[in-house]
Amino acid sequence: MTLVTDPAEPTAPRVAIVGATGAVGSTLIELIEERGLRYRELHLVASSRSAGRVLTVDGAKYEVQAIETFDFSQADVAFFSAGTSVSEKWVPVATAAGTLVIDNTIAFRMDPDSPLVVPQVNAHELDRRPKSGVIANPNCSTIPLVRLLRGVEDRWGIRHAVVSTYQAASGLGYTGVEELQESTLASLNGPDSAFEPEHFKPSLAFNVIPKIDRFLDSGFTLEEQKMLQESRKILGMPHLDVTTTCVRVPVVNCHSEAVYIECHEPVDRAELVEVLGGLPEVTVHDRTDLKEFPTPATVGSSDHVHVGRVRITQSNPRAFWLWLVADNLRIGAALNAFQIAEELLERGTL
Ligand SMILES: NC(=O)c1ccc[n+]([C@@H]2O[C@H](COP(=O)([O-])OP(=O)(O)OC[C@H]3O[C@@H](n4cnc5c(N)ncnc54)[C@H](OP(=O)(O)O)[C@@H]3O)[C@@H](O)[C@H]2O)c1
After folding, report:
1. Least C-beta-crowded within 10 Å: which of 47, 71, 117, 256?
2. 249 in Cβ contact with 168 (< 8 Å)
3. Distance 184 CA to ligand 1 centre (A)
4. Which residue among 17, 18, 24, 338 is best mutated to probe the pocket of ligand 1, counting the most ligand atoms within 8 A of its Cβ?
5. What is the pLDDT of residue 130?
6. How would you classify residue 187: left for phi > 0, otherwise alpha for psi between -120 and 50, otherwise beta?
7. What is the pLDDT of residues 291-322, one digit of tens each?
8. Which residue has the higher pLDDT, 195 or 156?
9. Count of domains for the chain
10. Which strands make up the sheet holding 100-103, listed edge to edge?
């Protein structure tokens, strides 16, 4: 859907981006320009560290405002991507001022009064304004996964799914990317070069780390638990069996996932490829050539979920593997949030 940019239009919403200087916030600004969001006013908000910084959007200059002094009654809709503690503190302030919040953090995802939305899967949740005033944006690895699970569930029914993720450094924002670059340079300088990682431990350079977010008593990590709980909520399948190992890899941007799904019925590969390729904004690379596959470096910044390595397992005709790659900053965060806003505008909910 393309919306016409017309800041002068009196019915267009007043928009705030909280976390405008961060990786997700900057991607939202790119999307506003690329997709031509209609807005009457735009407010860029971050911490006091960035207050006064000037950013350009659609050719106009905007001064970044500190959240402490921002008046949320100036915004009809606010995109929050400034961390969970910021959302916990400031989203209630925004909703009390009448602002509809689209939140990118974990703060409201499991709140029963806040829908958790992937527009390609459960846009119907946007038919009415939520009681809480908050629409939650899911975890960056969950979004591309549920977009594929929806199609598989509707055709064959899912018995269970097993997923391993390969998550990029940008999942931790600009600081994650910087630390990957610094640690890689340090490693190239020799094994004795002193580099103390702050975010990825042990260092991510030339390494993979099977731990994202904190450990829970179950032995799973919070990231792994998010993928299970959020998939169930988005798909409306409270008993869905998805088990995950989440791994950080030394890739700058784009998360990948190896996905094993066992269905209730035998699956034909040709039909599976048709079903997956027919889902909105999904590209299947090995439709005809089994040797074609997507990688983070080759798909680049893309608005599609990329799929390859689609294989029916040799021992079980009801089960198959696939590989997916999706831009975590766009599909996994900013684009999903943006598409929620587009759906709201289309419905007149905003
Ligand atoms: N990166 C991803 O792939 C991804 C995917 C899904 C969800 N998310 C979530 O989105 C959020 C932002 O992630 P990111 O990757 O954009 O991080 P980031 O690059 O570190 O950016 C953080 C943003 O939050 C602002 N901020 C930090 N502390 C603040 C405070 N106390 N008050 C107001 N603003 C504050 C920063 O502003 P300053 O410039 O002033 O520091 C910056 O604009 C996180 O909650 C993350 O979990 C990220």
Report:
1. 71
2. yes
3. 23
4. 24
5. 97
6. alpha
7. 999 999 999 778 999 999 999 999 999 999 99
8. 156
9. 2
10. 65-66, 41-46, 14-18, 77-80, 100-103, 134-136
> Do both 81 and 226 map to the same domain?
no
pLDDT-above-90 percentage for the chain: 94
The domain in which residue 216 lies consists of: 142-168+208-328
pLDDT of 7 > 80? The answer is no
Our mutation pick for probing the ligand 1 site, out of 47, 68, 223, counting the most ligand atoms within 8 A of Cβ, is 47
pLDDT exceeds cutoff 50 at 1 = no
Structure tokens at 303: 């608005």
Q: Is 88 in a helix, a strand, or coil?
A: helix
Distance 156 CA to ligand 1 centre (A): 39
> What is the CB-side half-sphere exposure of residue 205 using CA atoms within 13 A?
21
Q: Are residues 161 and 286 in the same domain?
A: yes
Kind and range of the H or E element at 76?
Answer: none
Which one from 43, 255, 285, 306 is the annotated catalytic residue? 255
